[in-house]
Every structure is written in C-alpha cells, then in structure tokens.
Amino acid sequence: MGLLVDGKWQDKWYDTDSTDGEFxxxxxxxxxxxxxxxxxxxxxxxxPARKDRYHLxxxxxxxxxxxxxxxxxxxxxxxxxxxSAVSPIMLEHGWTFNKSEGxxxxxxxxxxxxxxxxxxxxxxxxxxxxxxxxxxxxxEQIVNNxxxxxxxxxxxxxxxxxNSRVDxxxxxxxxxxxxxxxxxxxxxNNGVYRAGFATTQRAYECAFVKLFDTLDWLExxxxxxxxxxxxxxxxxxxxxxTTLIRFDTVYYSHFKTNRRRIEDYPxxxxxxxxxxxxxxxxxTTNLLHIKQHYYFSHKTINPTQIIPLGPDIDYxxxxxxxxxx
Length: 325
Ligand SMILES: N[C@@H](CCC(=O)N[C@@H](CS)C(=O)NCC(=O)O)C(=O)O
Prior knowledge:
The protein is of the alpha/beta class. It has two domains: 2-161, Glutaredoxin (3-Layer(aba) Sandwich); 171-324, Glutathione S-transferase Yfyf (Class Pi), Chain A, domain 2. Helices cover 35% and strands 10% of the residues. The chain has nine helices and nine strands. It has a four-stranded mixed β-sheet with strand order 6-5-8-9, with helices on both faces. A three-stranded antiparallel β-sheet has the order 2-1-7, with no helix packed on it. Strands 3-4 form a two-stranded parallel ribbon. A hairpin with a 4-residue loop joins strand 8 (133-136) and strand 9 (141-144). Helix 1 (63-74) runs parallel beside helix 3, helix 4 (174-189) runs parallel beside helix 7 (235-254) and helix 7 (235-254) crosses helix 9. The longest helix has 21 residues, at 201-221. The chain is globular and about 50 Å long. The termini are far apart. The model has no long low-confidence stretch (mean pLDDT 96). Glutathione binds next to helix 3. Glutathione (GSH) is lined by residues 1, 28, 62, 64, 128-132, 146-148. One of its GO terms (cellular component) is cytoplasm. One of its GO terms (molecular function) is glutathione transferase activity.
C-alpha cells in the first residue's frame, strides 16, 4: 500500500495522525470525460467516444471498480472497452499484475505494477495509485480515475456503439439519485472504510453509528419499493450493491461493522439477492478476490493475514422482490 510522490513510489499506509484517527479518502485527481452528455467541470477535457480506444483497469476486490465492471456489462460495452484486472493482493508495491495471484496481467504494456501506468500518464505523478482507471490507448493517458464518473461515462458516452438503451441516470430522477448517492457514499460506501481504518475509538464509533442509521433507513425504504428511487433500477442501486455484497463476508468482521449483518435485514438482504441475480452480475463478483484482498493486504488490521473460510451465504436463494414490479 502506498503512493507516488513526484513520480517515485513510496510504501505508506494511510495517515490518520493529522485527522484525530479519522480516515479521510483522497479525492480522485483525474476527472476528464468521454462523450457529450452532462455538464462537466469546466477544466475537464472531453475525449471522443470511439470503439476499442479505451481500456479499464480494475480490481475484482474493489467496490469502486466493481461499479464500473457492472455498468460496462449492463451497457454491453465488453467489445468497446477492454479490461485488465490487478491481483487481489496489494502489499508494498501497491496493486500488481501478478498472474499467479489471479491478475489477468497488464494486456497493454505488460507492466508489473499499476504505479508504472500512473507514471506513464505523468512521470511526476503525485497521489495514491487507485483502481478503477479509464485509460486512453491512443494518447496514452488516464482519462478518469473516479468510479462515480466512469459509470456515468459508460451510461451514455458510448451509446452510438451499443444496443443497450438502459439509462441508469435518467433526467427525471437525477436530483433524487444525487441525494441518495450523497448519503450512501458518506455513511455506507466510504462509511465502512471510515469505521475500518479509524485509529481512535471515537472516530470508529462515529462512523459505525452513521452507517447503521443509514442501513436502518434503507431497510425501511426498501420495505415499500423494489429499488432505491422507486421501481426503476438506477446507478444509485449499483453504488450501494457493491458495498452490500462485501458486507457480511468482509466489513462485518474485518472493519468491525458488526451491529448486524445484511442477512439480518429482511428487505435489504432480499434486495441484495435481487440485484445479484440479474444475469451478468455474478460474473462481475469475485468473493475470493474480495476476501483475499482485504484480509491479506491490510496487515495493520489483520497482522496474521489469515483469510477466514466463512461465511457461507447463498446469494442465489429466491427473493421476494418481484412483488413490487
Ligand atoms: N474515489 C475513488 C476511490 C478508488 C479507491 O480508493 N480504490 C481503492 C481500491 S478499493 C484503491 O485503489 N486503493 C489504493 C490506495 O488507496 O492506495 C473511486 O471511486 O474511483
């Protein structure tokens, strides 16, 4: 685990000393765009939509990258945007392309480490070396390394090349989606990390309480509707899904978010199964990579690096969510 400083790799864990034990996630630094939809920050560059020009670097372990894998498949972009997956094990060199550990290898440059790609983008790059990364093969640079942007780019940026007319961010729901995203990002998606990476009791408890407040709120809301904004699936659901699917297997024990499991919430657990059972979703979900990554890579939290064998949860079990359709 580490970061680049002026293009040089440094092996460093997150600094929580200056923030009173709180984990503060660094903002993504490269946020350019593909396609003409949406208002984008005025200094962002627009790249043209092209077939087979862009490459997506992901980790199957990572909840942020998982969103992009799901939307890429739902929008049928497999032949438009190629992918490489890193190894689930992230230690002193950060993300690697070690094939013996389950990486696909780096199909563009044959690099050993993801930080080499960030250096190809900018040989003086400073910042964390994160997945997902959307890469432009033509100009050899990172287009965007923020998953929230990448799923919106996939949602409509390549529509001229795909038959999928799915819209995960419909105009009429944008305000509602933005509001839901904000609460879920802060207290759930990032909330589990704020609990797990906290280094003071106070910071941990604060994240824990907010996380379970939101899960209780979601349980209530999903008791009367199939998806987060009503009866239509949107990006807000995928953003929540990738945290929920990791919750009982990893966050509950590794990050100590153990007031309740998702399995203990009748509506949330069925909602999770409903999403998981959409045809292409299981193929984007790799629970082995997920377990290996967290338990083996976070030595400050789990120094023995022992990967638990359980739990056994059947996500293919029937759910009762069609009743809302
Ligand atoms: N805001 C970013 C966060 C990405 C992120 O933090 N990814 C994690 C993997 S789960 C990572 O690569 N961490 C490496 C590090 O922080 O050094 C996004 O949503 O794309």
